[in-house]
Design a protein that fits this description.
The chain is elongated and about 65 Å long. The strands form two sheets. The protein has a seven-stranded mixed beta sheet with strand order 8-7-6-5-9-10-11, sandwiched between helices. Strands 2-3-1-4 form a four-stranded antiparallel beta sheet. It is α/β, with parallel strands linked by helices. Strand 10, helix 11 and strand 11 form a beta-alpha-beta unit. The two termini are 38 Å apart. The chain folds into two domains: 91 residues, ACT domain (Alpha-Beta Plaits, 2-Layer Sandwich); 218 residues, Rossmann fold, CATH 3.40.50. The protein contains twelve helices and eleven strands. Helix 1 packs antiparallel against helix 2 and helix 3 packs antiparallel against helix 4. The longest helix is centred in the first third of the chain and has 15 residues.
């Protein structure tokens, strides 16, 4: 990759960006041999007065960091301390030329885990929730934990399961995000360890091009406690991302993968940009970037779009 005097872009995202925030981040950059060559405001204000609170500032940086890995770790720590998101990107042609976007579903596109809600209906909510949390933290093998959780749903009436489709809300910013992606002709997909009955609803609601998830087996109107193989685990998510990119003739460098759990890391690592959305600490630490302070539409700023470039309706 060729280097230029403005080879790094730093994006600051949050509900409000103050002068003190900027000074703290500027000092951190200076300690690593970097200075601001150009500042660009991507939102109408850095101190919005009404919801949704989106304040975004983009800095073109001059210089090369002495230790980029250390710089990224310090930026993540500062972001956490300041209740902001800070993204550091190399200013390559791919940065603003993303054409494929793939998303996890549970706790990413929607505010919750479908399997946990099913478990509550089946009377095993606490037990399943503990297994889910351990799996998302990377403490349990996904296939094993998923099989155990689904097994506990045996006997749940199918009509109760399907009723959940109208009860779990979308994540903030999801509708604006997909309107914008669709209007620009980008290809979108759900790659989920959740269930097809919910993913199908989201596909229709958000105009998503395709989805891949787990098929919950239902016989005689009841959940059997099994899924129809193969299980959609982390490795399969990465495989599906690769397959979609090849089929659509889109380089992986132009793909964006968004998720919140450890089983999303393989696809996030394969994509040109991996984004941890309101994710567990282990995922935030390993992802290229993270969005915690804004909604899903925050990722639009990471691909260089301004408020006036996106669909705010």
């Amino acid at each position: 990759m060729s280097q230029t005097s403005h080879s790094l872009i730093l994006t600051i995202l949050g509900p409000v960006i103050t002068t003190l925030h900027q000074e703290r981040i500027r000092d951190l950059l200076a300690a690593h041999g970097l200075e601001i060559a150009h500042a660009d405001q991507l939102t109408e204000s850095l101190a919005p007065t009404q919801e949704p609170f989106n304040a975004v500032l983009s800095w073109s940086l001059r210089g090369q960091p002495k230790q980029e890995k250390e710089l990224r770790a310090e930026l993540l720590a500062a972001a956490t301390d300041l209740s902001l998101d800070i993204a550091l990107q190399h200013d390559t042609p791919h940065r603003t030329n993303r054409r494929l976007f793939v998303f996890d579903m549970d706790s990413t596109l929607i505010q919750g885990e479908v399997i946990d809600e099913l478990a509550k209906l089946a009377g095993v909510g606490e037990e399943v929730s503990k297994i889910t949390e351990a799996a998302m933290r990377g403490e349990l093998n996904f296939d094993e934990s998923f099989t155990r959780r689904v097994g506990l749903l045996k006997g749940l009436p199918a009509e109760q399961a399907l009723a959940l489709r109208e009860r779990i809300p979308l994540s903030p910013g999801a509708e604006r995000l997909f309107r914008t992606l669709k209007s620009r002709g980008y290809y979108t997909a759900i790659l989920s360890g959740g269930f097809t009955f919910f993913a199908k609803l989201l596909q229709a609601r958000l105009g998503i091009d395709e989805f891949h998830a787990n098929e919950l087996e239902i016989v005689d109107g009841k959940v059997t406690g099994r899924v129809i193989p193969p299980i959609m685990n982390g490795a399969r998510k990465a495989t599906m991302l690769r397959d979609i990119a090849k089929r659509e003739s889109i380089p992986l460098e132009e793909a964006v993968a968004v998720g919140d759990g450890a089983n999303d890391l393989p696809m996030m690592g394969l994509a040109g940009m991996g984004i941890a959305y309101r994710a567990k600490p282990i995922v935030r630490a390993q992802a290229d970037h993270s969005i915690t302070s804004l909604g899903l539409d925050g990722l639009l700023y990471l691909i260089g779009l301004r408020d006036q470039d996106s669909d705010k309706a």
